[in-house]
Design goal:
alpha+beta; Immunoglobulin-like; 4 domains; five-stranded antiparallel β-sheet; four-stranded antiparallel β-sheet; 4 helices; 16% helix
Length: 397
């Protein structure tokens, strides 16, 4: 039940948004007879359907529907019926209105059709919320829209908020608005309403509208404070974390988490250990091997409450585990390599600049008295040719 102020705000908002929409209502009755129901009108600001009747019927029944939903209020005893304002029914694809007289075959069928050039409304409208409170909405110009068409976005976060136009448009190379950036967005329980109007100098442009539950388009931030506590005397690692940040939900039981762990030095083992999904904020990694190092990353999604069921962003990779201790082997290898290098260097230097005889001269030996004659004769024979050459005329007897 809305109080007076809320109802006034809602009616004012509807009037502001819908007064400029170009649309027509076309009605027809049964072909066999002329319907007494005429002059059908729809006040979108109040969601009120009215008509005139040439006969005084005590009861009427009204229905509004599109291809996705239908709204039928209780029977009324006047020529007006008001549909609930909570009926989230977009209008850009057209709406069917039916007025019936109970227990008779008297009825009136009407169609609400947007006006303007066919194909001039925007296409591929989508919005996404990220980093808790930022939102981007984008669209494409209608395929048959005139070149001078410009688009304007209006939106209302909930029924209780004021409608507003986009403050920061995203434009293309031709200066045409093709999107909008929002800041400080609050996710509400109710649906948000988006309306994109178009304008052109020479033509009417069809509008586009849509209701969106903002929590469904939110990309969740990564889980917070992810830690892995591993000890050598245990058979596993305890991984803990906190839920991702949201602007509207604080219940930790509303999330599901996907944990991805792979061995750092053996990436092929990734296929052997598929991601694990848990609902709590704690996970025990049983396959922990203290001689290996692991890489961990996580993401979250909603499994209940008003949270998106799509997976959010991954955390940054986190390494844990001791891994193989290569330090001792590296030190021993360097020592051995250094020893070999120094030895080879010394050997090359000695071979290049030194002689073993100069370093180790021969030790003098004592003369052998018993073989002295032999030595003297050898010396005499060695010297005699020279004497003969120097003194050729001498004769030694």
């Amino acid at each position: 039940m809305f109080d007076t102020l809320e109802l006034i705000c809602m009616i004012w908002w509807y009037m502001m948004l819908f007064h400029s929409l170009h649309a027509d209502i076309h009605c027809m009755g049964p072909e066999a007879q002329e319907s007494p129901i005429t002059n059908v009108k729809m006040d979108w600001s109040k969601m009120e359907l009215s008509w005139e009747s040439s006969k005084n019927f005590s009861k009427y029944k009204c229905t509004i529907r599109n291809r996705d939903m239908e709204g039928t209020p209780p029977e009324v005893n006047s020529t007006k019926c008001r549909f609930p304002l909570e009926l989230y029914m977009p209008l850009h694809e057209g709406v069917f209105l039916i007025i019936e007289v109970p227990n008779t075959n008297i009825s009136k069928h009407c169609t609400f059709s947007p006006g303007g050039i066919n194909g001039s409304a925007i296409e591929n409208f989508s919005c996404v919320i990220y980093n808790v409170s930022l939102m981007n909405c984008t669209w494409q110009a209608g395929r048959d829209a005139p070149e001078d068409t410009q688009y304007f976005l209006y939106w209302q976060n909930s029924r209780y908020d004021d409608a507003m136009e986009c403050e920061l448009y995203i434009t293309d190379e031709n200066g045409r608005n093709t999107g909008c950036r929002f800041q400080n967005v609050r996710i509400d329980v109710n649906k948000a309403y988006f309306l994109v109007n178009g304008s052109s100098k020479d033509s009417l442009i069809q509008f586009y509208d849509e209701y969106i539950r903002l929590y469904k388009i939110e990309i969740l931030t990564p889980p917070l404070n992810v830690t892995a506590n591993c000890t050598t005397d245990s058979v596993g690692c305890i991984i803990t974390w906190q839920p991702p940040l949201t602007s509207h939900v604080e219940n930790v039981k509303c999330f599901q988490y996907e944990i991805h762990i792979q061995t750092k030095d053996e990436p092929k083992e990734e296929e052997k250990d598929p991601p694990v999904r848990v609902r709590s904020n704690r996970y025990e990694f049983q396959n922990y091997n203290e001689k290996k190092k692991y890489i961990l990353k996580m993401r979250a999604r909603g499994r209940s409450c008003l949270i998106s069921s799509n997976w959010g962003e991954w955390t940054e990779p986190i390494e844990f585990g001791q891994g193989k201790d290569y330090f001792i082997f590296v030190v021993l290898f360097l020592i051995a390599l250094g020893t070999i290098s120094v030895t080879l260097l010394q050997y090359c230097l000695f071979k290049r600049y030194c002689s073993f005889k100069s370093i180790f001269p021969p030790i003098p030996q004592p003369r052998d008295k018993f073989n002295i004659s032999t030595d003297e004769n050898s010396q005499t024979e060695y010297a005699s040719p020279q004497n003969k050459q120097l003194y050729p005329g001498s004769n030694c007897g």
